[in-house]
Amino acid sequence: MTLAAAGLACALVFGALAAIAMVAQVWPAGLALAVGAVGGAALGAWAGWGLATWPSGKLGLFRDRLVVIQGRHEMRAVWSVMETVTLSEPGSWPRVRLTDRLTISFKNEPPLKFKPAQFGLEPSACRDLMIRLRDDSKLRARLPEFDSARDLAVSPVVAGELIEPRL
């Protein structure tokens, strides 16, 4: 965002200075300032394209859990209760159909489903990473600890609907 704003500000300032130099018949300075304006516009466009293609969700990997935030919805998955991590459509056995949606099944809980592409990840690589983290506690020990009071206090996340009745 800062790069896009700085690029557009430079494009406007250099463009205005180039126009003033052209009116004053100072062609070499006007041409140099015009090149600066084009460079600023290119920087702003490049930064804007980067913002437009930024992943729409957040995926947090912690020692004891996986946290998936899509919009204002938060889903948590504890590594120790994960049973299966698959890209196949649930209930498609014996004709297995692969999808771009990762499904994590748990003991005694509904499955967690999300599209790794929304986080900038390739689906099969994300599945392999989740399986590796689920099975390797030494690898998970290198991850940070989850501290919900500190991490989520900055931006409140809604995990469901309002449960208290309104009058």
Uncertain segments are: none
Report the β-strand fraction as a percent range. 15-25%
Would you report the number of β strands? 6
Biggest sheet, spatial arrangement of strands: 1-2-3
Q: Helix and strand succession?
A: HHEEEEEEHHH
Structural class, by secondary structure, is alpha+beta
Report the CATH topology name of the largest domain: PH-domain like
Model description:
The chain is of the alpha+beta class and 167 residues long. It is built from five helices and six strands; from the N terminus they run H-H-E-E-E-E-E-E-H-H-H. A three-stranded antiparallel beta sheet has the order 1-2-3, with no helix packed on it. Strands 4-5-6 form a three-stranded antiparallel beta sheet, covered by helices on one side. Helix 1 (2-23) packs antiparallel against helix 2.
Question: Which features would summarize this protein structure in a list?
Answer:
PH-domain like, 3-stranded antiparallel beta sheet, 167 residues
List the SSEs and their pairings.
Elements: H1 2-23, H2 27-52, E1 57-61, E2 65-70, E3 73-78, E4 82-88, E5 98-106, E6 112-114, H3 123-135, H4 137-140, H5 148-151
Helix pairs in contact: 1-2
